[in-house]
Design a protein that fits this description.
eight-stranded mixed β-sheet; Beta-Lactamase; 676 residues; five-stranded antiparallel β-sheet; flat; ATP-binding; single chain; diguanylate cyclase; alpha+beta; EC 2.7.7.65; phosphoprotein
């Protein structure tokens, strides 16, 4: 339930009520601002959509030309590859792999590399994946690799994929970073491998012709074109979403480099599915505007009819088309669009702000003029209502008592605690709602109020209608009439949780957790008043016989059960006047007040006998354990003797009992000799 605070009471006077003006202004202005904002937002959305289309329209020519350029570049390599395989030098070397024919074909490969400088490697592989001829192009020079430098490419993926090729088919690998001897080349060399099958004159497979197309210049040309565009981000990605080209170069080549952290899907998850599943499109996300198109570098839409006819013998595998279905993406972040928008320009912001400010000023002026007509409020009634509400629903109980303790006024909070209605409480003495123990406290409290103007922190236990009780901390101020105590205005705070916690803490501090008996500290505290008296006092030191053996043989769970049984037997065997405690381990102590030596002996012997006759069972078993105890008894000899001294004598007697056979009661020497 909400409890009223003093700060909830409004300041009411005959001046302009700015709080009311503010609330009404906020309510009306919110409504007007929502309508105004909705209208502006509609205009803004239409304007932004048109602006985005306009910006992207300028990019369409670039997208089309880039797509055609990339397709043409890749198709050119296919034409060169086809023309090379038709060379007679190929046929001569295949039919007769002499040194002279090897040199002639090597010269053809060198000329091919020197002419088409983007051919990083030109190779002829045997059917089992061994390089037969290889020419590398580096730093502007074509170099024939000597035979001892040729490598085995059986484990390379492009060789494995090419083993299913037929004559006239071409396998084209995905673009990736080139490896030499199992290591990525530095600097990076992005390559696409073109592989076709070479037959001999008998139309039997004789080897594989492989061209490594170095795509560095192709990608650098793409990046250079992107820098000339608007401040959008141009990207090329492969079908898996790895970047072939990205404005953040560290994100490129995730398919080849293990330490590249991101794919397109990771940075733009909301855009990935659309880009992946559609050939072309324009769409908006929370991050900005995306325009994408599939490049399909092995498509034939950019090649003349004549070129298509020339290529009829070359068939590109469907898998090659699939793994090289690149996506060209232009991404315009929201910031780029905003920079071109009137709504984000300084002049636009000023105009929009002025529109809202002007509307607010007019509305505020109208509300002030209207509020000035309402200045004359009857605020006394309002204050009275607020104070009454504060009194009734305060977080503490309030009641007023007459000089006899009769309740003459009580608030709603305290009535809810009591569970009574106001009619059931008014006119009753407050003591009738207290527990017997608290009634005496209340009587003294009421008497004190007659001589003191203020009393604080009196703890009372109140009896509710539902028969449960709770504790309150009560404070009261007395009001005099004609010089005599007349009325007490009282406040009460429910402190039940605090009392319960204090009792729980006291129990934890004073009780042995295992046996629920007093612990050592509590025993000494309880024994203090006994030792301060003139009573005769006998003290037992009790120890479980062979307890270590029980723990070792049966485990500590059984040992704990033995200790619990000893405690239970002590509680039932000894009188309530006896102070009983567990000192620690298997040691227990008993203090018997107002008994003589015979009575002490009988009590100790009774406890020993009952313990001897008790039975403890192993857990989940019917196996019995017989437990005995040894008891050392000492008496306080003179009044000034401390509890530690008596404990020492009892402990010595206990030692004697244990060393002379156990399961017995032994009195300390001074008890036997009668020196007490």
């Amino acid at each position: 339930m909400h409890q009223k605070q003093l700060s909830d009471i409004p300041v009411v006077n005959n001046k302009l009520n700015w709080q009311r003006v503010t609330k009404r202004f906020l309510a009306f202005y919110t409504f007007i601002a929502v309508i105004l904002a909705a209208s502006i937002y509609t205009v803004f959305k239409n304007y932004t959509n048109n602006l985005e289309k306009k910006i992207m329209l300028h990019e369409e020519v670039f997208i089309a030309s880039t797509k055609q350029s990339l397709q043409t570049e890749i198709q050119t390599q296919l034409r060169v590859m086809e023309m090379t395989t038709k060379s007679p030098l190929f046929a001569r070397f295949i039919e007769k792999p002499s040194q002279q024919n090897r040199e002639h074909l090597s010269v053809l490969f060198k000329n091919l590399s020197s002419t088409f400088t983007r051919f990083n490697q030109v190779r002829l592989l045997s059917l089992d994946g061994l390089e037969r001829i290889r020419v590398d192009y580096d730093d502007g020079q074509a170099r024939v690799i000597p035979q001892e430098g040729l490598q085995d490419k059986q484990k390379r993926n492009y060789y494995k994929e090419s083993k299913t090729l037929k004559v006239g088919e071409v396998f084209i690998s995905a673009i990736e970073l080139n490896e030499e001897h199992g290591q990525i080349e530095i600097p990076y060399k992005p390559v696409i491998r073109f592989v076709t099958l070479i037959n001999d004159s008998h139309n039997k497979p004789a080897g594989y012709f492989v061209i490594n197309y170095l795509a560095t210049d192709l990608l650098n040309d793409f990046r250079a074109k992107m820098k000339l565009r608007i401040e959008g981000q141009g990207m090329l990605i492969d079908p898996q979403g790895y970047w072939i080209s990205n404005h953040q170069r560290s994100n490129e080549w995730g398919g080849s480099l293990p330490d590249v952290e991101y794919k397109f899907e990771d940075l733009y998850p909301e855009a990935w599915e659309t880009v992946r599943d559609n050939e072309s499109g324009l769409f908006k996300t929370d991050k900005g505007l995306f325009r994408h198109v599939s490049i399909k570098p092995f498509g034939t839409n950019s090649i003349s009819q004549k070129t298509k006819d020339e290529q009829k013998r070359f068939h590109i595998l469907d898998k090659s088309k699939k793994i090289n279905d690149w996506k060209l993406i232009i991404f315009l972040p929201n910031g780029v669009i905003e920079e071109a928008s009137f709504f984000y320009a300084p002049a636009g912001r000023v105009i929009l702000t002025a529109l809202f400010v002007f509307t607010a000023a007019i509305l505020l002026l109208l509300l002030i003029l209207q509020e000035q007509k309402r200045r004359k409020y009857t605020y006394d009634a309002l204050i009275k209502d607020q104070l009454t509400d504060l009194y009734e629903n305060a977080p503490c109980g309030y009641h007023s008592l007459d000089k006899n303790g009769t309740i003459i006024k009580i608030n709603k909070t305290e009535l809810e605690w009591l569970g009574y209605t106001k009619e059931e409480v008014l006119g009753k003495n407050f003591a009738s709602f207290l527990t017997p123990k608290s009634k005496e406290t209340f009587t003294n409290f009421l008497i004190s109020l007659k001589s003191q103007s203020k009393i604080e922190g009196v703890v009372l236990e109140i009896q509710c209608k539902q028969n449960h009780t709770f504790f309150v901390s009560t404070s009261a101020t007395s009001i005099s009439g004609n010089g005599h105590f007349a009325v007490a205005r009282t406040s009460s705070f429910n402190i039940t949780d605090r009392i319960i916690l204090e009792r729980k803490l006291a129990y934890i501090a004073n009780t042995d957790e295992l046996t629920n008996m007093s612990n050592r500290r509590h025993f000494f505290k309880r024994a203090e008043p006994e030792f301060a008296s003139e009573k005769s006092l006998y003290l037992f030191m009790i120890d479980a016989d062979h307890f270590k053996h029980i723990n070792d043989q049966y485990g500590h769970d059984v040992g704990d059960n033995v200790l619990k049984m000893i405690a239970k037997t002590m509680q039932s065997s000894l009188s309530e006047a006896a102070l009983k405690a567990r000192l620690g381990g298997e040691e227990f102590v008993v203090l018997l007040p107002d008994v003589n030596a015979d009575e002490a002996y009988l009590a100790a012997e009774k406890l020993r006998a009952e313990m001897e006759n008790s039975i403890t069972y192993l857990a989940n078993s019917e196996q019995e354990i017989k437990i005995t105890i040894s008891i050392g008894v000492a008496a306080r000899r003179y009044q000034s003797e401390s509890i530690d001294e008596v404990l020492k004598h009892a402990d010595e007697a206990l030692y004697t009992a244990k060393s002379t056979g156990r399961n017995k009661v032994i009195f300390a020497k001074h008890v036997i000799e009668g020196s007490y």
